Amino acid sequence: MTSTDPPRAMPVHRIDLPRIVLVGKGVLSSINGICRELGYGKALIVTGKNTVKIAGERVQWILANDGISSDRSIVEDAQLETVGRVMEDAGRAKVDVLIGVGGGRSIDVAKLAAAKTGNAFISVPTVASHDGIASSLASVKGMERPYTVKAVSPVAVVMDSGIIAASPYRFTAAGCGDVISKATEVEDWKLAHSENGDYYGAYAASLALMSSQLIMESADKIRQNTSDTVRDLLEALISCSTSMSIAGSSRPCSGSAHLFSHALDIIVDKPALHGEQCGVGSIMMAKLHGLDWEKIRESLERIGAPTTAAALGIKKEKIIEALVMAQSVRPDRYTILSKIHLDRASAEALAVETGVI
Ligand SMILES: [Zn+2]
User: Fold this and answer.
1) What are phi and psi of 265, to 5 degrees?
2) Ramachandran assignment for 249, one of left (phi > 0), alpha (psi -120 to 50 degrees), beta (any other)
3) Which residues pair with 141 in a beta bridge?
4) Rounded distance, CA 283 to CA 260, Å?
């Protein structure tokens, strides 16, 4: 470029990030202060049947004590109709903010309902089982796609490590599986860039990859499952969400291991947790990528996350079927499975060689 060339137009890149992220033991009690700071006077608490007792009622009580009124929507699934019902509740109560209090379902429903009604969204996870707790993407059933859709970035994320450390450890281990799988998902993204000409953002990729590496290194610490040790996972999940916000899509965090998990969700009656399936998928995809798949498996084992079909509670046959079908779930997302076409025999060999079946 010479000085006489016109400046090259930079593509517009919008990055939406949470304004406030609180991580630590007891931070739930700050929810009123956050609402005050952001100017919200009326809230809709979107929570589940169990999570209402764990944190939903407390959030309402803390808000009420500070003169902030709130209504409550109990959700039992993440179906599109449920999102519609929550939207009606939000409209009727004329709220300023939807606060999702719970696990995946409450958070996803609140997030999508907030996006559709133009309300703000605050995320208050009670488990740390996946990276959607701080991202702008929602996973809702009944939509045309079996994977996440763009919703809205939480304006605040309140992660009370005391509540999360007291949740069943299975969820925390699953969250680690979701984070560890970024090792292969980032590799898929690099491949999509070099072989398919996809946009690739080195910063977003590095952030997701670093989260995966840190969780693998912290495996033994995380297994202790205290409010202090769970922080590593919470910060990793925030980093993964941030990487997606920077990339403008789920690309740094969702590749072939996620496609494998989505395929299982479609073909298995009782799928395992998202992060559990992604972790197992990542072992196999790492082998296809020529990465150190044994290190991924060993890290998952140390954390206490599943590494086999039996531990997932899924039949061997379904693992093979999901491997063969995975890329077709999202053909436009180029991954190692776009390059290496697995048939039944090669899928079975991969699952056997990595000890998954
Ligand atoms: Zn995930």
Assistant:
1) -60, -35
2) beta
3) 79
4) 11
Angle at alpha carbon of residue 220, lines to 276 and 167, rounded to 5°: 55
Distance 278 CA to ligand 1 centre (A): 7
Asked if 327 and 338 touch (Cβ cutoff 8 Å), the reply is yes
- Residue 15 burial (10 A CB sphere; 0-12, 13-18, 19+): exposed
- Token pair 């959030």 is found at 59
Cα-to-centroid distance, 172 and ligand 1 (Å): 13
Residue 93 has pLDDT above 90, yes or no: yes
pLDDT-based confidence at residue 12 (cuts at 50, 70, 90): confident
How high is the pLDDT of residue 9?
Answer: 57
CA of 181 to the centre of ligand 1 (A): 8
State the sign of the Cα–Cα–Cα–Cα dihedral 53, 265, 235, 100: negative
Give 29 Cα–ligand 1 centroid separation in angstroms.
28
Instruction: State the distance from the centre of ligand 1 to the C-alpha of 232, rounded, in angstroms.
Output: 17
Q: What angle do CA 296, 190, 262 make, to 5 degrees?
A: 60
HSE toward the beta carbon, residue 306, CA cutoff 13 A: 22
> If pLDDT is split at 50, 70 and 90, which confidence band does 247 have?
very high
Written as one string, the DSSP assignment of 234-268 is HHHHHHHHHHHHHHTSSTTT-SHHHHHHHHHHHH-
At position 180, the amino acid (one-letter code) is I
Would you state the structure tokens that stand for residue 74, as one six-digit string?
Answer: 């109990």
- Give me the residues paired with residue 47 across strands: 74, 101
